[in-house]
Specification:
With about 325 residues, this protein is an alpha+beta fold. The chain has 10 helices and 11 strands.
Length: about 325
């Protein structure tokens, strides 16, 4: 079975899930709004600060409209299936909200000396109580992944402590390792506040509290998943590995163990409007070909199965992929 066929077969199950997920998110969102945002107020970011400031100015009826408007903009497929489209009033209050702005100055003074290395240790200890041990971790230890098996589904939890954020997270529910029922799931996304949930501003005194909050949020979602998936299953076989070969150029390297490459094929660049890039584990590229500007061929070969000490290179999407000089055929 190839990817398009698998997607088509999974679509009815996905539609059933997104409706349940939307209704569950409505319940969780109502609890947050009615109880003074017990989780949202502990997530230190401009997205949550803007939400809290805006909500303070609303009356009771406006809060109901606002909460509903937020949810509907992030659960588009469920809204379409249920024909629960935003009202004129909901659209109006959402536009008011999107025009508001907040400043980070009140956070920055307290967060200048935040020690991420120590925070990662706190996070790993706290999350172990909910998620167990990571199944994958990048060489720089800034990102790690947990898997939780639930029937025929795998719930993956991604933790990211890289970049400017102190920590960010999201879940995905997969039928196969590369076939998602739903991805990019986190509290700010299911409530319609932001596409991702990040703690951007933390002081050292807030490290334990942030780790505890993240652990509680992961536990809240994982405890809800069995009911969300009740009666939903799949019998998808493993996806076919197709043979292909394409030429690429190295564009840059990331600190998380990946290299950015761009396709040299004009048709592919045109199809992606000039942005036909891919991230592959740096470890699978021979050292002599890693320099920015280097050209090489990436080959996906069903008969090739990688053995590597790098967990990134053993992911299904890269397991049958190798890099070779352009002159080799």
């Amino acid at each position: 079975m190839d990817v398009p066929e698998a997607i088509q077969k999974l679509q009815p199950v996905r539609d059933g899930f997104v409706v349940r997920f939307y209704r569950w998110a409505q319940e969780i969102s109502q609890e947050e709004f009615n109880n003074g945002f017990p989780y949202i107020s502990r997530i230190r970011s401009l997205s949550t600060l803007r939400l809290l400031n805006f909500t303070e100015s609303l009356g009771e009826n406006e809060r109901v409209l606002f909460r509903s408007a937020l949810l509907k903009r992030f659960h588009l497929r469920a809204v379409e299936l249920l024909e629960d489209f935003p009202s004129i009033e909901e659209e109006a209050i959402l536009q008011r909200y999107l025009k508001t702005d907040v400043q980070a100055w009140q956070f920055e003074t307290a967060t200048r000396r935040f020690r991420k290395a120590q925070f990662r240790k706190i996070l790993l200890r706290r999350l172990k109580l909910v998620l167990g041990d990571p199944v994958e971790m990048t060489p720089n230890r800034k990102e790690w992944t947990y898997h939780t098996q639930m029937g025929s589904w795998i719930v993956s939890t991604e933790i990211d402590t890289g970049g400017r954020r102190n920590v960010g997270y999201d879940h995905s529910i997969g039928a196969l390792e590369t076939m998602h029922l739903q991805d990019r799931i986190s509290v700010l996304s299911w409530m319609g506040i932001s596409s991702q949930t990040d703690w951007m501003y933390l002081s050292e005194d807030e490290a334990d509290e942030a780790a505890e909050c993240l652990g509680q949020l992961c536990g809240q979602f994982l405890s809800a998943v069995p009911k969300l998936l009740e009666g939903l299953s799949h019998d998808l076989p493993k996806l076919d590995v197709r043979e292909w070969r394409d030429l690429f150029t190295v564009k840059g390297h990331r600190k998380n163990g990946y290299t950015i490459v761009a396709s040299d094929t004009p048709e592919l660049r045109k199809a992606f409007r000039g942005k036909a890039t891919w991230e592959i584990p740096t470890s699978i590229i021979p050292e002599r070909l890693r320099q920015v500007g280097s050209h090489f061929a990436i080959v996906q070969d069903p008969s090739f199965i990688r053995e590597s000490a790098d967990p990134l290179a053993l992911k299904p999407i890269y397991r049958h992929v190798r890099v070779e000089p352009t002159e080799k055929r």
